[in-house]
Design goal:
Helix content: 25-40%
Number of strands: 9
Order of helices and strands: HEEEHHEEEEEEH
Distance between the termini: 35 Å
Shape: globular
Largest sheet: 9 strands, mixed
Number of domains: 1
Low-confidence stretches: 1-42
């Protein structure tokens, strides 16, 4: 029971970290980048559609998704807090990319997970709500290994918009900054 509680606390810490790392990234038609606070106090960063750095980060995350699934299927004792960032369509061509916790593979090839923070542009959806999605909707992944963040490619382009001390502290927490 203590081990299960310890695992759940570690997973909660990773989810909280995901929320603090820009848990919601919105790809918008706007050309400017906007930083605001979500109702749950997690930062929201609006990124223009077609942003080349973010597009490259998503492409790298999607290309390395097999590494996530391999660790998810057979985690080492040092690997916890498996999270996915998932794209949800909003209005027009916009989308909200949001970190999801408690990831599960479903028998039909889809996935389910819970919102790790409060969605901004998904009416009726709340932090903790369980939703289903397809692999094509996954835009990033991460988990913790020996206290370091593995994955999290879409976090990296956001580092330059953070205060230097915060960005440096976050880089120090990443297995591959």
């Amino acid at each position: 029971m203590t081990s299960n509680l310890s695992t759940r606390l570690k997973q909660a810490a990773v989810v909280a970290l995901a929320a603090l790392l820009g848990a919601a990234v919105l790809l918008m038609d706007a050309s400017a980048q906007d930083r605001s606070q979500n109702k749950d106090r997690s930062p929201i960063v609006d990124i223009a559609n077609g942003n080349p750095e973010m597009a490259a980060a998503i492409a790298k995350a999607r290309a390395t998704l097999p590494a996530f699934w391999a660790s998810y299927e057979a985690p080492k004792a040092s690997e916890t807090g498996f999270s996915l960032k998932v794209r949800f369509p909003t209005r027009g061509t916009s989308a909200e990319h949001i970190w999801m916790a408690e990831v599960k593979k479903l028998p039909d090839g889809r996935y389910s997970a819970r919102f790790a923070n409060q969605p901004r542009d998904l009416p009726g959806k709340r932090v903790g709500d369980q939703v289903e999605f397809a692999q094509a909707d996954i835009s990033d992944w991460m988990f913790m290994r020996n206290g370091k963040i593995v994955g999290g490619e879409t976090i990296k382009p956001l580092l330059k918009s953070m205060p230097k001390a915060d960005a440096d502290a976050l880089r120090a927490r990443m297995e591959t900054p």
